[in-house]
Amino acid sequence: MALKNRETFGSRMGMLLAMAGSAIGLGNIWRFPYMMGKNGGAAFILIYVIMLVFLCLPVMVSEYLIGRRGGSNPFSSFDRLAPGSKWRWIGFLAVLASACILSFYCVVGGWSVKYLADSCILAFSDAQGDYALSFGSFISNPWKPLLYTLIFLGLTGAIIVFGVRKGIERMSKVMITMLFIIIVMVVIRSLTLPGAMEGVKYMFVPDFSKVTADTCIAAMGQAFFSLSIGCGTILTYASYVKKEENILASSAWISFFDTTFAIIAGLAIIPAVYAIAYMNGVEPDVSAGPGLVFITLPGVFSQMPLGNVAAILFFLALLLAAVTSAISLMEVVVAFIIEEMHRSRKKAVLMCFAVCGVVGAFCSLSFGPLAGFKLFGLSVFDFFDYITSNIMLPIGGMLLAVFAGWRLRRANFLDELTNSGKLRIPRWISLTLYYLVKLVAPIGILLIFLNTFFS
Ligand code: TRP
């Protein structure tokens, strides 16, 4: 294991934006708004934030701490902190989970490539086409979505090849900055439509009648997915972080950034859907599920002034967000291949592309020719989405917290958190965090988890 020449992030800003880039993704723009739509708007946000503070922040701190102290990919980070123990296989499972997530993630990433291309064509050919209607026929086409999936995966690999500083850090900085500027423009367009305020009200006035036990697991799964925790992504990025950084402050900052962005993305979408529905005299439907962004929204864009521009900007934002997250997932696998299988970065990227490309193809085809093929009653795509978000991430997160809280000694935990006493973190804060990691997070996750499986 030649880790002497291991790369690090070049600057604090670069590190924070790379991690925020990992967190901010399809989870924020595509998944959060429809989850919120289905689960009672503001009530969902409230539950989400509670989960975030008590369960997810401790897990993120644990993952960050293990990665920075271990200084390697998930497999050998665990091995170094608990030499010879079985824990390294948990690290290995994290690598596997990342590959599974990447495999279905790149399918949706592919859709965003296609929608960006389509919205450009529409804007420049003034065809009054309605690509909203063709979503179903697009995803069920035997080869087109496959092609876009591979384009997206290739784009991701092309960034990773350049390594941590020149690839991940540089591209995340550029892309996340662009993303923010673009989404703010789309929000302004959406909020200035007549009737948009009803949508804002929906987002911020809680409706507790829609809250059920399922809302809690949905909010927890969403929070894990959105923060990129539970499968070694933050761990791997943290292994490139220098020892001077403040773990707690970085984690809090990333969580805050991610949540704010999810709400901003909601403001870009939900008010626009409301406004156009009122214009057409129909009831707004924001619980359209996964189709909200790809079916409802194009219809909304096609009916609003400056909609062509808004559509291009929106799908560009979606693509940027998706790419910065996909690189973080791929980096977990690539770092593992480089360090444990001793391959060059280029070979590692090619191997990852090949494996995730094949699994991704199955996920993509499960909307078309393979629709009849079920795993445990779910299509291949839904199967991967379900087992990763609802099972692997919570279990992974719980184990990460258990490791940081029980296996690392308390002194080591506090030492890493305070950078050996160099950071002046008040003792009550570090101790509270320690007990959140040791007790609250693992027990909380376990209870929510068991509750879903026995109800
Ligand atoms: N957080 C990203 C999103 O919101 C997706 C993602 C990247 C992810 N890395 C992850 C999800 C690790 C779970 C685990 O789209």
Task: Output the keywords.
455 residues; mainly alpha; Hydantoin permease; two-stranded antiparallel sheet; 18 helices; 2 strands
Q: Would you mind describing this structure in some detail?
A:
This protein has 455 residues and is mainly alpha-helical. The protein has one domain: Hydantoin permease, CATH 1.10.4160. The protein contains 18 helices and two strands. It has helices at 12-23, 26-38, 42-70, 74-81, 87-124, 135-140, 144-160, 163-191, 196-204, 213-227, 233-238, 247-279, 291-303, 307-340, 345-365, 380-407, 410-417, 427-453, and strands at residues 374-375, 378-379. A hairpin with a 2-residue loop joins strand 1 (374-375) and strand 2. Bound molecules: tryptophan (TRP).
Topology:
Blueprint (H helix, E strand, L loop, with lengths): L11 H12 L2 H13 L3 H29 L3 H8 L5 H38 L10 H6 L3 H17 L2 H29 L4 H9 L8 H15 L5 H6 L8 H33 L11 H13 L3 H34 L4 H21 L8 E2 L2 E2 H28 L2 H8 L9 H27 L2
Antiparallel strand pairs: 1-2
Helix pairs in contact: 1-8, 1-12, 1-14, 2-10, 2-12, 3-4, 3-10, 3-12, 3-16, 3-18, 4-5, 5-7, 5-14, 5-15, 5-16, 7-14, 7-15, 8-12, 8-14, 9-12, 10-16, 10-18, 12-13, 13-14, 14-15, 15-16, 16-18
The structure holds tryptophan.
